[in-house]
Amino acid sequence: MEEISGDATVVYVDPSCPFAWITSRWLVEVETQSGIELQIRLLSLSVVNEHRELDAWYRGFNDHAWGPARVMAAVAATHGTDAARRFYEAFGQRFHVELDTGDDVNRNAVAAEALADVGLPPSCIDAATDLRWDDVLRSLTGAVLARVGLDVGVPITVIDGVATSGPVLSEIPRGEAAVALFDATRTLARQPGFVRVERQRVGALHVA
User: Fold this and answer.
1) Model-level pTM?
2) H helices within the chain, ranges in order?
3) Separation of alpha carbons 113 and 90, rounded Å
4) 8 A C-beta contact, residue 54 and residue 153
5) 15 in Cβ contact with 68 (< 8 Å)
6) Integer Cα distance of 161 and 121 in angstroms
7) What's the chain's Rg over C-alpha atoms?
8) Is the N-terminal amide bond of 68 cis, ω within 30° of 0?
9) Which region among 16-20, 39-43, 50-54 has the lowest average model confidence (pLDDT)?
């Protein structure tokens, strides 16, 4: 796995996942408000769900998630993790915010536009259909899931060196609310006996 600073807060994301997008935007808000060191890293939702039984819609969603994840992996490998973050944020702005995580959207085309948005070489889009990146995705994803020890997906966060699944949010906390949630999450992560807190989602997702 790529080296991570011991003091860093890390969020593992798949470019196609709206929940990962919301969690990453929350942590960017905390980064802005409180100055945490935030790193955004890749975990492939397609790999997580590769051998699971899924309904037809969600299987299709996951099948189309391979392309953008391959591109993000290729950008990280050839241009570094900061460039991969820039790609991720440009892709998310287009796909989740502007296109509302659309089912009928050509995600590889969005990935090509995102590369252009942040000045990365257009040739990086070739990774979207290059199956050789899939073993990289499997390796990265397996290593992250091993840290959590659960059969989970994205987002996964690492706060104070403790990896946990979530938090999964339906909207982006801002300002003091973002920092308060971060402090609460940090407190939970520090408790060795803590396992899970969860409730039913009500209403639509708000990705902006």
Assistant:
1) 0.94
2) 18-34, 45-48, 56-63, 66-79, 81-92, 107-117, 133-148, 175-189
3) 8
4) no
5) yes
6) 34
7) 16
8) no
9) 50-54
